[in-house]
Amino acid sequence: MSGPPLIRVSGLSKRFGGLTAVEDLSFDVGHGEILAVIGPNGAGKTTTFNLITGMLTPTTGQIELDGQRIDGLPVHRIAALGMLRTFQHNMPFAGMSLTDNVMIGAHRRFSASVVDILLQRSHVLAEEKQTRARAAELIDFVGLGHHLHADVTTLSFGEGRLLEIARALAGDPRVILLDEPAAGLTASEVKRLSTLIRTIAANGVSVLLIEHDMHFLMPLAERIVVLNFGRKIGEGTSQEIAANTAVVEAYLGSSINQLGQGGAHA
After folding, report:
1. pTM of the model
2. How far apart, in whole angstroms, are the C-alpha atoms of residue 143 and residue 236?
3. Least packed by Cβ within 10 Å: which of 63, 90, 168, 205?
4. What are the backbone dihedrals phi and psi of residue 127, each rounded to the nearest 5 degrees, phi first?
5. Spatial separation of the C-alpha atoms in residues 109 and 183, rounded to whole Å
6. Cα 39 from Cα 111, distance rounded (Å)
């Protein structure tokens, strides 16, 4: 990683009473980098995401986005700075088209006041038209262009995953956090998702993801952070993680070596 990181997590800890969910965690995410956070169930991965995005307040430590401290800021303030996420479960707005769902993701970009909207002033209509066109572009970008005007209830689970990503992209993120994006997807959907994530990163948007599917993850992530019982036990490339004895013993098992040997070229 060259230059200063986009995200810097330093000494991050979160305690719930006597339970420590995350302990003294530090890592960086570069501009346009794909970084994965892995670990067994209960390792602290989702808690880490919730801390970074403002859904939880750290007990100790700090989080910076492009040099600005964001720990303790509310979710909407962090999102306005360009940090957006998806969740483990699809959360579409039922009864609405794909276009309208994606437009909701662009809400922070609207400049019109309530009065402007009620009076349907010309700049409001122009802004809505522009946002609707952008939503259509993003729907096509994630591979759902053929569903442009369909209700979200017609989507498969995997297509719903892609819609979540399109909605996050509508907010013009600098970094997007994906929580188990490959869960429940077919082999062809996983392949399409992998290509999509690479394209997002190639366009300069950093990608931070949690994932359990190592066949999907190892060829994709440029670096991997491994958690176990809330503590970081490894960090590096897929090959370095595959060769890390502590990681293999704690979580991944011997099969990781096969993935690490060919993963970077898959």
Report:
1. 0.84
2. 31
3. 90
4. -65, -40
5. 30
6. 41
